[in-house]
Design brief:
Aminopeptidase
């Protein structure tokens, strides 16, 4: 796929998870730990990532690799926000390992996901966040709306963004 130069002049490669299936358990565990503890079993998250083992199609997952280890990932998928079933497809599950944050890897993953979406014929992509508004706004995403969601008995506001790709 492509690489991104980082501040320390090392290179994080952006690749498809399909090409590195040995990293699926790590990526699934990060996703589980970040968003699904107490909601879904880890085995279910692994099955979801197995379904994203595609190249230039949706669903798919891209990973950032440095020194032969994954340091981040992002997915393209359908039906990510139950409150908005009419909006598809979604950029989802962006995560960068804590030691690698602030080095441009998240932005590189987003850009690679956008490029993959274009290759798959997507004209508009959506995402939602309650923590990374500045990242997405800086990458040219536009706020569509703010919705209240209720996950695990906790209500929170999620910002839905979109980006026209073609």
């Amino acid at each position: 796929m492509k690489s991104t130069k980082k501040e320390n002049n090392s290179v994080a490669e952006i690749q498809y998870l399909k090409d590195y299936p040995q990293y699926l358990p790590i990526i699934a565990y990060w996703n589980y730990r970040e968003w699904h503890v107490g909601k879904l079993p880890l085995d279910e998250i692994i099955v979801r990532y197995q379904k994203r083992m595609q190249i230039a199609a949706i669903p798919t997952t891209l990973i950032a690799i440095e020194d032969t280890m994954p340091v981040g990932s992002v997915s393209l998928k359908y039906d990510d926000l139950p409150a908005r079933p009419n909006l598809n497809p979604w950029l989802a599950s962006l995560i960068v390992s804590a030691d690698y944050r602030g080095k441009g890897i998240g932005g590189a993953l987003v850009k690679a996901a956008e490029t993959t979406a274009v290759t798959a014929g997507v004209k508009r992509l959506y995402l939602f966040t309650h923590t990374a508004n500045a990242l997405y706004e800086g990458a040219g995403w536009s706020l569509l709306e703010v919705v209240e969601t209720n996950a695990a008995e906790i209500s929170m506001s999620e910002s839905i963004y979109y980006k026209d790709l073609q």
